[in-house]
Amino acid sequence: MLSWGPLALLLATIVNQLPVISALVPTEPIYVYLGTQVAEGSGYTSLAACLIGAWIGMQASYWLGRTAGARLVSRMRVGSGAIARAKRLFDRWGPGFVVVAQLIWPIATLAQVMSGIWGMRYRTFFFASGLGAMLAIAQYAAFGWLTAIGLEKLGLQPEETLLIWLGPYAVLIGFLVLLALGIGLILRRGRQPMPLRLAYAALLAVGMLIAVNIGTLSGYTDPQARMGPVPFDTACTALSDTLVARSGPTLLNTAQPVNLALIGVEDPGALLQGLGWLRNRTYAGDDLDAWEVVTLTYRGRPPASTLLLEGVSTDMAWQETRGTIPRTQLRLWPVAVPEGAPQVFLASVVRLDSIALRLAGRIPSLVYDLTPLTDRARNREARLLSGALGGRVVFDGPLDEPADAEGFRTLEESDFRSDGLIAQVLAPGAPSLKTLCGAAQRPGAGG
């Protein structure tokens, strides 16, 4: 469900159609976002509100032109050459010009005003503007719809080579060409300084990209992944192979190592809270809407994307301090330990230090980039946690794996280098993971 009310959308789209002030409220990213929601089976009411608002705004522009005339055109700062070309098109095509002009901003607002100035019959403008409003909104909504269903239909993963998948991009490329033509007309016909026009066009494009990303993410806000404890055998695997948590339905993070374990800690949340860490809401465990995604990110506590460890997700995500980039993040997976064994949590602690643009499905998506050397964040947080517990840290892992001259290994499905070890934070009196796994494998051990 969209958090912006239909009334707010109605008012925004009315303002977007008014001369002079239309540039202050660019609604194109909203239409793109709503297209992603239509792909998920919702957003129709909001689209209807946008359509009605756009049509009402067009009527207001027409009557402003009819009554204010030349004074309004002078305020719009439209050159005489542009008006002359528009007059030729208007004389030749009439209602058709009004319809097609709605696809290209700012020609759209000019056409509405000039229709009133040049005396088009209101009944004719009434119907032409209605058709133009539908096409104007549909072109951006279709962009969002196509990019959203592309994730599901093509099933591509981040960072796949774009050229291999050029065929499925044909329709999207067509829309991008049309968008580029529209931006070209904006840059050619505007009277503002070129840097200002370029900045506006760039911001509009970025806004649409963000709208697609938010819309695609909001399609995955319901819990998607299997929740629950990780099997104890999986935890023991960390002693012989580096475990990797892989991206789930929300492709905000690439694969990252499982490089930390808490042993004998019954309530890691209380421990982290005592150290000043902040808990994140998660896509896997929470029902988030788009507005919550935006506001949480703005407040410096963005929702944590879904990461799967052997197909199991978690809603236990924490960050060290408030902020989006850079920040240190910790994910925790509870482990199903044998009867009588202390509680074990597997964890991935990483440093998010930038935002990258990667291929996810048919669209470029904004994702978090991790610091290539993951060990520094792991070691620092392990020391802080063990100090708070009054315990100790034990390092173990696949020492026999191939390493470079500096002792680092490139982790599977990522470009991050690590020594491959898992830092075990042991509460006072708690055994190491190796001891627990060895005891479970002895004949007669409970499981």
What's a concise summary of this model?
It is found in: Cell membrane. InterPro entries: DedA-like, LssY-like-C_dom, VTT_dom. It is built from 15 helices and 16 strands.
Topology:
Elements lengths: L5 H11 L11 H12 L4 H25 L1 H7 L3 H14 L1 H7 L5 H11 L4 H33 L15 H20 L4 H25 L7 E2 L2 E2 H6 L6 E4 L8 E2 L2 E4 L4 H7 L3 E3 L9 H9 L8 E2 L3 E2 L2 E4 L7 E10 L7 E17 L2 E8 L4 H15 L2 E5 L12 E2 L6 E2 L3 E5 L6 H9 L6
Parallel strand pairs: 1-8, 2-10, 5-16
Antiparallel strand pairs: 3-4, 3-7, 5-11, 6-9, 9-10, 10-11, 11-12, 13-16, 14-15
Helix pairs in contact: 1-3, 2-3, 2-8, 2-10, 3-7, 3-8, 4-7, 5-6, 5-7, 6-7, 6-8, 8-10
Family: Belongs to the DedA family.
Organism: Pseudoroseicyclus aestuarii
Keywords: Cell membrane, Membrane, Transmembrane, Transmembrane helix
State the low-pLDDT regions, or none. Answer: 156-171
Number of domains: 2
- Note the main sheet: 9 strands, mixed
Give the overall form: elongated
Write down the Rg.
28 Å
Averaging pLDDT over every residue, what do you get? 76
How many E strands? 16
Q: Assess the beta-strand content as a share of residues.
A: 15-25%
Quickly count the helices: 15
How far apart, in Å, are the first and last alpha carbons?
A: 45 Å
Structural class: alpha+beta
Helix content: 40-55%
How would you describe this protein?
This protein has 447 residues and is of the alpha+beta class. It folds into two domains: 6-218, no CATH class; 226-441, no CATH class. The chain has helices at 6-16, 28-39, 44-68, 70-76, 80-93, 95-101, 107-117, 122-154, 170-189, 194-218, 232-237, 268-274, 290-298, 375-389, 433-441, and strands at 226-227, 230-231, 244-247, 256-257, 260-263, 278-280, 307-308, 312-313, 316-319, 327-336, 344-360, 363-370, 392-396, 409-410, 417-418, 422-426. The strands form four sheets. Strands 2, 5, 6, 9, 10, 11, 12, 13 and 16 form a nine-stranded mixed β-sheet that branches. The protein has a three-stranded antiparallel β-sheet with strand order 4-3-7, with no helix packed on it. The chain has a two-stranded parallel ribbon with strand order 1-8. A hairpin with a 2-residue loop joins strand 11 (344-360) and strand 12 (363-370). Helix 3 runs antiparallel to helix 8, helix 4 (70-76) runs antiparallel to helix 7 (107-117) and helix 5 (80-93) packs across helix 6 (95-101). The chain is elongated, with a radius of gyration of 28 Å. The protein starts with 5 loop residues before the first helix and ends in a 6-residue tail after the last helix.
